[in-house]
Specification:
Length: 428
């Protein structure tokens, strides 16, 4: 029952996976006709089973993965078959005694070279499956050539059935509810930007005891960003195989998404450090409430302005438009950084003079040791570092907008709260 409950949950939350299962069934049903129907079987013979095997191994979840595997399989089969026929002809010219030796040596050399190529990063990223198919096909052709007389006909039938299977895979993958790796990568990036903004707001609000229920469950969203590199690299490689679709035109800058993701991870590392510090014993040192409230007035605006920039960048990526608000929010963030830095300029001495409540004398200025300010100073410096990393994300997203030719968004009137906040910061 637990197994069926889990399967039902997966089907309900991710219906695309159910659709993919149906697509595999449709593809196998179509290709099996070449085996069951006599006219089609007579044209391909027993080699029709290779088309079935091709569908099983080549039809992947996304269009990019299907095209990548199909092209690798067909290309590797053509290259390996051609080389295998050439080696077979050369072995025949050398006589019956040397023929098995030449075939064995060729298999050893080419299999070793092809296997070594799989360790090269650029080959592994795009042609790893093709290299494996090359080894399999060349070995099969070389060994078959020693015992099979009609080797050319065998190679032709094998290529035709594999081409048939890959064609069915690509057509079904693209025509029936296609899942585009490029679209998933694009959505993954802007959702992670939103996760960073939520995590930053949640961490700072948690430190200053602003218990907002809207932040519950969002404070650890930065972890999705930290663990996203492998997913982004894989999807970017697959997206480069896909044709133009939707708003993603030919030669869309998929590699730029990796640069945006790398900038996001540096910011996520800083947020992780901030969250770890907030929950450490050092941050738990007793800080005078008046000092903490004073720092709250400069740290919260810095956190808020940084998250505004991240959310605006998420909106830019989601809508693929150049935002007119980003520069304003970045300027507001820089003003907030300056406000925090100005506060800590007064900490150049070892003590700070602040009005502290006193039961006997009332409110009067007293000297507070700088060690009492240390937890707040550390947290504020981390917020400044995060703002700097956010600035780096802005640069990469603007580069993305330039390379992908995002349309310029029409300017709109800002809400009164945002303008009032900005004017107040500017006045300060």
């Amino acid at each position: 029952m637990k197994f069926f409950d889990k399967a039902r949950d997966i089907a309900a939350t991710e219906p695309k996976k159910v659709i993919h299962c149906l697509k595999v069934g449709i593809a196998l049903s179509v290709v099996s006709l070449f085996y069951y129907m006599r006219p089609l079987y007579d044209g391909l013979g027993g080699n029709a089973m290779w088309a079935v095997m091709t569908v099983v191994v080549a039809l992947e979840y996304s269009v990019g993965a299907t095209i990548a595997k199909s092209c690798n399989r067909v290309g590797a089969t053509l290259v390996a078959g051609s080389i295998g026929l050439g080696v077979h002809w050369m072995a025949n010219q050398c006589g019956q005694e040397l023929q098995p030796l030449i075939l064995q040596v060729s298999v050893f050399i080419l299999a070793s070279v092809a296997t070594f190529s799989r360790f090269i990063p650029c080959v592994k990223a795009r042609f790893d499956y093709g290299a494996m198919v090359f080894i399999l096909t060349f070995s099969f052709v070389s060994m078959s050539g020693y015992r099979v007389d009609k080797l050319l006909e065998l190679a032709r039938n094998r290529v035709s059935t594999i081409s048939l299977g890959t064609s069915i895979c690509i057509l079904i993958s693209m025509l029936f509810y296609p899942v585009w790796a490029g679209k998933e990568l694009h959505d993954h990036i802007y959702q992670n930007l939103q996760n960073l903004a939520d995590s930053l707001d949640g961490c700072v609000a948690d430190y200053f005891n602003h218990d907002d229920e809207s932040f519950h469950g969002k404070k650890e969203g930065y972890k999705c960003v930290l663990n996203s590199r492998a997913i982004q690299v894989a999807k970017a490689n697959l997206a480069s195989w896909e044709p133009a679709h939707g708003p993603f035109r030919y030669r869309h800058p998929w590699k730029q998404y990796l640069k945006v993701g790398a900038s996001m991870r540096t910011c996520a590392y800083c947020i992780e450090t901030l969250r770890g510090y907030i929950h450490s014993e050092v941050s738990g040192m007793k800080v005078p409430e008046l000092v903490k409230e004073h720092m709250n007035q400069v740290c919260m605006p810095l956190s808020s302005s940084s998250s505004k920039v991240l959310r605006e960048l998420a909106f830019t990526m989601e809508t693929m438009t150049k935002s007119t608000k980003t520069d304003l929010f970045v300027h507001e963030m820089n003003l907030a950084v300056e406000s925090v830095q100005n506060v800590f300029k007064h900490l150049s001495n070892q003590t700070i003079l602040m009005p502290v409540p006193d039961e006997e004398t009332g409110h009067k200025p007293q000297l507070i040791p700088i060690m009492d300010i240390f937890p707040l100073a550390t947290m504020a410096s981390l917020l400044i570092e995060i703002a700097d990393k956010v600035q780096g994300i802005v640069v990469q997203v603007e580069e993305m907008a330039l390379l992908a030719e995002f349309q310029k968004n029409k300017p709109s009137n800002f809400d009164n709260v945002t303008m009032t906040s900005f004017q107040y910061r500017l006045a300060v």
